Amino acid sequence: MNRRQIIKLALGLLIANSALPSLAISTLNVLENQSEVTWSGSKGIKALGTHTGTVAVKDGKVIVNDLGEIAKAEIEIDMSQIDNHDLSGEWKEKLLTHLRSPDFFDVEKHASAKFQSKKVIKLTGNRYKLIGDMTIKGIKREAVIIGEYSADKDHNFKGNMSFDRTDYNIKFGSGQFFTNLGDKMIHDEVKLAFNIKAE
Question: Do 61 and 30 form a contact (C-beta atoms < 8 A)?
C-alpha cells in the first residue's frame, strides 16, 4: 500500500467515524420530596425483631444517554432525618435516638451517606446493576444496587441493596464482636430499598 492509498484510507475512516451518532447525555436532578429510601434491620429472632423506616433523600443525579439508558447515578441521603415506621411513642424515640448516636450512624459528625456508581450494567428489559461506592460515617465500601428504571412518564428508579453495617464500623450488638447477646443481638445486615424520581 503506497502513501496515497494510506492517506485515502485514513480519510475514509475519519469520515466514517464522524458520521457515527454520538451518545448524548442528559443530567437529571433527583426530586428529593418525591423520592425516599426505606431501610430494614433486625435483632434476635428476625421474624419478631425487624424494624423498618425511611431516611430522607438530600440530593442526587442520574445521567442517561440518548438511548434512555442509565450511564451514571449518585444519591445523597440525610441520615439526620432517619425515621421509624413500626414503633410509636417512647419506644420509637428511644430507637431513633440510638440510631443517631455514635453507637450507630453518629449523625452529628456524619449527617450524610452517599452512593456513587462506578459501573452501570444494563440487564434484561429495564433492569440495571449499579456497582459503586457507598459512603457511611466517612467510610467508603463497594456496594451493588439492582433495580428497574422507567422513563415512560417520569424518570423513576426502584432498586434494592444490602450491606454489612460492621463494614462501616457500626459494631454495637453485633455477634461478630460480642458474645452471649441472646435476643439482644442485632443482625449485621441492613437492607435498603430505593424509590428515586428525577427530572
Answer: yes
CA distance 135 to 14: 43
pLDDT per residue over 93-133, tens digit each?
A: 999 999 999 999 999 999 999 999 999 999 999 999 999 99
Q: Which domain holds residue 59?
A: 23-198
The H-assigned helical ranges of the chain are 3-19, 89-100
Q: Is residue 13 part of a domain?
A: no
Which pTM does this prediction carry? 0.82
Q: Which residues contact 191 (CB under 8 A, 6 or more apart)?
A: 39, 40, 41, 160, 161, 162
Q: Checking DSSP bridges between strand 139-150 and strand 155-164, what pairing results, if any?
A: antiparallel
CA 106 to chain centre: 19
d(CA 77, CA 57): 5
